[in-house]
Automatic annotation (TrEMBL):
Molecular function in Gene Ontology: flavin adenine dinucleotide binding; oxidoreductase activity, acting on CH-OH group of donors
Residue span(s) of domain Glucose-methanol-choline oxidoreductase C-terminal: 434-552
InterPro entries: FAD/NAD-bd_sf (IPR036188), GMC_OxRdtase_N (IPR000172), GMC_OxRtase_C (IPR007867)
Domain Glucose-methanol-choline oxidoreductase N-terminal: 141-330
Family membership noted in the UniProt record: Belongs to the GMC oxidoreductase family.
Keywords: FAD, Flavoprotein, Oxidoreductase
The name this protein goes by in its record: GMC family oxidoreductase
Domain of life from the UniProt record: Bacteria
Length: 571
């Protein structure tokens, strides 16, 4: 029988960016908050002088143990899903700070078009532009409503950036200047301007200079060591929850973090959540934590799975398109790339930072005319210099044998002699893309694993080739001697890393029939339960999601405070 603890004001399930932001905002207002994190505690000192590519980048030290908990995957409903037993397409983080510890730090704002995508697409192109089975919908909020929260997140994190020439309006400039420009970045910028495009240094959570944020948290500038993605930052220069918002919440005395606490059920009675049941993985004890307000702030799959396991909300039915929990799963089309090889030039690409790069949005969202194109939306295009570490950095031109003397010779010849220009394409939801509970496979506790049903569609294939051609054009103007580019986008396969940007499943909107949460991320079906994170995205944009997750988290915090004061539905 579970041991029952005294009730608190708020219990958070997951202490990554979303949970940590909400903890900071609520505890500053005097609420007593408990944060339950299934992984271990982390601090900056853990990463002092630990530039270990094998441990972190290849053996996934900061990721969850797939032998105990994973997902299952299938490309369509006609085949049996199988468990993901080794990391490939995406990485599932675990521990205090969540994926916010091992991210690159690229911090964009989704575009006005994203939040009203269905309305704006129909308005410009007519209903027939949306293909059969594509389930895009407006998010129930506008960019203008969310803009102050974007600004707040950027100032908390100290985002270093430069104005996007064709970006939406901002209420203030970035809090710190853009990162340094490297020679390849300057080559990209010159090529883009030659093609009459609009490049800008991408927004970075790697600090360009020492910074103190509005909460009084001081951090040091980035050293450009190149160990960001899959690594914790030894300098604290990369914004993560552990060095930004968690200390603020802890300082209030109102925040208790419990690590090694795996939440297995949200408890509820009638239409109210009453708390959570979790297992202390150090002892095996089952514990019940009652709370007035429950906030689900885990990764996408965890948010969906917990709601389904707890029988909260209406499970999505792909055959009828009804129900909402698991609906509109979307990924990212990150394969529209091109690589340029240089016979005589060398670049110091071993140096870098997770958010060091230059970007353009001329082919993102609806910034270009889609009337004669066989897809909607698009993607950002960028050159990033994130630090080419030695084990994984051995690009060779197409046609080169992938083993033996020829491969070794080409690897040495082109070491620091090739540049990649890539796109990050949006992912549109379809009726047959969703997440549910697997009927066969279970985790270490005996609970069903989340099951993904997903594949690339014509929408994705057409967009990827379009973007790859644009990337190749840029490399040609950057003087590359040989260019390889994506020629065809095959079926989605889960074995090769692409992006950890999974979204959807507990989507926001203005209508309870088609969405799970309102624009404060409050459950329509249970007003004291909030579900915060990229699970709220009704589709995925042509950007990294974290900036938008941060903004939505600040708005959700406002909603929770309003609910705590007055109760009831907020929208």
């Amino acid at each position: 029988m579970a041991r029952k603890l005294p009730k608190v004001d708020v219990v958070l399930i997951g202490v990554g960016w979303a949970g940590s932001i909400i903890a900071s905002e609520l505890t500053k207002k005097g609420l007593k908050v408990v944060g339950l994190e299934r992984g271990k505690e982390r601090k900056t000192e853990d990463y002092f002088m630990v530039h270990d590519e094998l441990r972190y980048a290849l053996r996934y030290d900061l990721m969850q143990d797939l032998s105990k908990e994973t997902i299952t995957f299938r490309g369509n409903e006609k085949i049996r899903a199988l468990p993901m037993r080794q990391y490939g397409s995406f990485l599932l983080g675990e521990g205090l700070g969540g994926a916010g510890v091992h991210w690159n730090g690229q911090t964009y704002r989704f575009m006005p078009y994203d939040f009203e995508i269905q309305s704006k697409t129909v308005e410009r192109y007519g209903k027939n532009k949306i293909p059969k089975g594509m389930t895009i919908q407006d998010w129930g909020i506008t960019y203008d409503e969310l803009e102050p929260y974007f600004d707040k997140f950027e100032k908390t994190a100290g985002i270093s950036g430069e104005e996007n020439p064709i970006g939406p309006k901002r209420s203030d400039k970035y809090p710190t200047p853009p990162m340094k420009k490297t020679p390849p970045m300057e080559m990209f910028e010159e090529a883009a301007k030659k093609l009459k495009l609009n490049p800008y240094v991408l927004p970075s959570a790697n600090l360009s200079e020492n910074y103190k944020n509005p909460d009084g948290i001081s951090r040091s500038a980035c050293q450009y060591c190149g160990f960001c993605e899959r690594f914790g930052c030894e300098y604290g220069a990369k914004a993560d929850p552990v060095v930004t918002v968690i200390p603020v919440a802890e300082k209030t005395g109102n925040f208790e973090i419990r690590t090694h606490s795996n939440v297995r059920r949200i408890l509820h009675k009638g239409n109210k959540a009453t708390g959570v049941m979790y297992t202390d993985t150090t002892t095996g004890d089952e514990i019940e934590q009652p709370a007035d307000i429950v906030v689900l702030t885990g990764y996408v799959f965890n948010n969906i799975r917990l709601l389904l396991l707890s029988n909260i909300g209406r499970p999505y039915d792909s055959k009828t398109g009804t129900g909402v929990i698991g609906k509109n799963y979307a990924y990212q089309v990150a394969k529209g790339n091109a690589i340029g090889f240089y016979e005589k030039k060398k670049f110091n690409t071993f140096a870098g930072a997770g958010s060091l790069g230059i970007n353009l949005d001329d082919y993102n969202g609806d910034n270009f005319d889609h009337a004669d194109l066989d897809f909607i939306h698009g993607g950002s295009i960028s050159f990033t210099q994130t630090g080419m570490r030695p084990i994984q950095s051995n690009g060779v031109p197409s046609g080169t044998k992938l083993w033996g003397a020829e491969f070794k010779e080409a690897s040495l010849k082109y070491a620091n002699g090739y540049l990649s220009v890539g796109s990050q394409g949006a992912s549109m939801p379809f009726q047959h893309h969703y997440v549910d509970l697997d009927p066969t496979y279970k985790d270490a506790f005996g609970d069903p694993l989340p099951r993904i049903t997903f594949d690339f569609e014509d929408q994705d294939r057409n967009m990827a080739i379009f973007l790859a051609n644009k990337c190749a054009d840029l490399l040609k103007n950057m003087g590359a001697d040989h260019i390889d580019k994506l020629e065809e986008l095959g079926p989605y396969e889960i074995t090769t890393y692409q992006s950890t940007h999974n979204t959807g499943g507990v989507i926001m909107g203005a209508d309870p029939k088609t969405s799970a949460v309102n624009n404060y991320l409050q459950m329509w079906d249970m007003d004291n339960l909030f579900v915060v994170g990229a699970s709220a995205f009704a589709h995925n944009s042509g950007y990294n999601p974290t900036g938008t997750v941060g903004a939505l988290s600040y708005r959700a915090a406002d909603g929770i405070l309003k609910y705590h004061e007055k109760g009831g539905a907020l929208a």
